[in-house]
Amino acid sequence: MFFMYRYLYLQYPEKPLTSYITEVFGKYLGWMIGLCYIVYFLNISMRVLRDFGDLLLVSTLPKTPLLPINAFMILAVSYILFHVIEVI
Predict the structure, then answer these.
(1) I need a labelling partner for 16 at 20 to 30 A (CA). Which of 1, 31, 41, 49 fits?
(2) Angle at 60 between CA 56 and CA 66, to 5 degrees
C-alpha cells in the first residue's frame, strides 16, 4: 500500500490524494472514492479522540465531563496546526 501511495505521489507531486484521484478514476468515481477516503479518516480521528478522552476520564479526571476534555484536545491540536512548527 505504501509503494502504491508513493508511486502516485511521484506521479502527481503538487496535488493531494483527493485531487489526483479524480484524474486516475474519472470525475464521478474519483469523487466518490475521495469522499470515502475523507469520511474514513474523519472516522478514525473521531475514534482516537474519543478513546484518548475516555482514557483521561478514567485515569486522571474522573469527575470531569467528556465534552470539555475533548474540546480542549481539539483546541490544542488546532492551535498547533495553525502555528505549524513554531509551537513545537
Answers:
(1) 49
(2) 45
Taking 80 as the threshold, does the pLDDT of residue 22 lie above it?
yes
Residue pair 53/66 in contact (Cβ under 8 Å)? The answer is yes
Distance CA 18, CA 42 (A): 14
Helices (H), the chain: 2-11, 17-25, 27-59, 66-83
Q: What is the spatial distance between Cα 70 and Cα 81, in angstroms, rounded to a whole number?
A: 16
- In the numeric block, the cell 470525475 is attached to 27
Cα angle: 31, vertex 37, 40; to 5 degrees: 140
Asked whether the predicted pLDDT for residue 87 surpasses 70, the reply is no
